[in-house]
Design goal:
This protein is mainly alpha-helical. The protein is 65% helix and 5% strand.
């Protein structure tokens, strides 16, 4: 089949970075005027690509795009923007356009967009939206951030428990305009709208028309409460391999559903957050200022400076020993560095296990014993290796023995610190991913320096 006459939007699109460069050029040429050329170029892009362009251009350019072409853009581009960039360009968009856009988005996406609108502008936006959209958005915003209530999509497909497959198919065809854009299951409900099972769309299409829904529905059904934390909900989806789940109120009545596309976003967001916290930093968006980035990172660097000063103080107490045997200054960073890496390995395993809820109070002793034994086994291996290296290098058997024992001690402490530090932080209500690395490094530095310099002083110089 020829595609010569296909619309440009259906043909292969250029990379977003090239689109961004082209659109910046269009803006520069058009100035802050009507911008028909800009609107034509954006019209050929998918909403996700439009969002990508707005994400990657400078802020002033993004604001210019919003002013010149905002009301002509498809509403879906708003849902694809990061919340940071969305907050920045929403004030430049007409309130009536945003209100209509909310009505054209799925209710979960509409709630996400509305959450980033300034409080003063939100009233005007909701006034321009239809009543159903306004009520759905207001209900979603009544729930805490990062909960199922914020992610819940109010559109779903439900059928009475007495229906057959044919009844459901006919009803969906008659009311096709009311169906969600994407759904994976039909929820079977009782007379009080309480879900009692779910029928996968694939199962529905395979069954005969006269087949009762209750004979092909899946039970038991995992029910989600609107107050459930999004991370806990994501783990539930992973555990039970779910594509969607109904959200119910206190009486068990269905209020909406959460779908796997939102869960993928949650998993990505939570994983990135934990990874950044493990390094003691917060998310650095492209639009973040230098001041904002410094303010987020400086406090933990200050804590790290304090621990480094304490470690230096420990070293200063062995100044006489170091002056007598310069090899101690050459070798002591090795002991601290090896211990720090061993502690980081144990810490990464522990933080991941805590985040995935695999590490609990009941199985914590088993994790602690495993990490301690693993660290000591590695310590024994590298103690022997390093002892041989030091013996060949300096020809001092007692120095080789001292560094071997110090490595073994530091590895054992590193393994224990790597798992006990995050567990302790969690016990006191702190996020174990935020500052564990600073304290684990502190432990391995102090233990490494004290063990090596102390043993060397005792064995070689006493």
């Amino acid at each position: 089949m020829s595609i010569e006459n296909e619309p440009a939007a259906e043909q292969v699109r250029s990379a977003p970075s090239e689109d961004a460069q082209f659109i910046v050029g269009v803006i520069a040429a058009a100035g802050d005027h009507d911008g028909p050329a800009l609107r034509r170029s954006l019209a050929n892009l998918d909403p996700a690509d439009i969002a990508d362009v707005i994400e990657h251009v400078p802020l002033e350019t993004a604001l210019t795009i919003a002013r010149m072409a905002g009301r002509y853009l498809p509403p879906e581009f708003l849902a694809n923007l990061s919340w940071e960039r969305r907050e920045e360009i929403l004030p430049e968009l007409p309130a009536d356009y945003v209100g209509r856009a909310l009505g054209q988005l799925d209710t979960d996406d509409a709630a996400a967009v509305a959450a980033d609108i300034d409080e003063k502008q939100l009233g005007k936006v909701l006034a321009a939206a239809d009543e159903d959209t306004r009520l759905a958005v207001e209900e979603a915003l009544s729930f805490e951030e990062e909960t199922a209530g914020r992610l819940m999509q109010r559109e779903y497909v439900a059928a009475p428990e007495g229906d057959t497959v044919g009844d459901v198919i006919d009803r969906m065809r008659e009311d096709s305009a009311e169906l969600p854009d994407e759904f994976f299951e039909i929820y079977v409900v009782d007379a009080l709208m309480r879900p009692i099972g779910a029928v996968r769309v694939s199962s529905l299409l395979r069954a005969r028309r006269e087949t009762p829904l209750v004979t092909i529905m899946r039970t038991p059904l995992i029910l989600i409460r609107p107050e459930m934390d999004q991370e806990e909900m994501a783990q539930t989806f992973q555990k039970y391999h779910m594509a969607s789940a109904p959200v119910v109120d206190e009486a068990g009545r269905i209020k909406g559903m959460v779908t796997v596309d939102d869960i993928v976003d949650v998993i990505t967001e939570e994983s990135e957050e934990d990874l950044l916290k493990l390094a003691g930093v917060s998310e650095a968006a492209q639009t973040d200022s230098v001041f904002k980035s410094v303010r987020a990172r400086a406090p933990w660097l200050l804590v790290n400076l304090g621990t480094a000063i304490i470690a230096s103080w420990v070293i200063s107490n062995f100044e006489g020993s170091i002056n007598k045997l310069i090899a101690l200054a050459v070798l002591m960073p090795i002991v601290a560095s090896m211990g720090g890496n061993a502690g980081t390995q144990a810490l990464a395993v522990a933080v991941r296990a805590i985040a995935a809820r695999d590490l609990t109070e009941s199985n914590a002793p088993r994790y602690i014993l495993r990490e301690a034994m693993t660290a000591m086994s590695n310590g024994l291996i590298f103690a022997v290796v390093l002892a041989v290296v030091v013996l060949v290098w300096f020809n001092l058997p007692l120095l080789s023995a001292a560094i071997a024992i110090a490595i073994l001690i530091n590895f054992a402490c590193a393994g224990l610190a790597g798992i006990l530090v995050p567990l302790t932080l969690r016990r006191f209500g702190a996020d174990p991913a935020v500052s564990s690395s600073v304290f684990v490094t502190f432990v391995t530095d102090i233990v490494g320096f004290m063990a090596f310099l102390g043993l060397a002083t005792l064995i070689l110089l006493s």
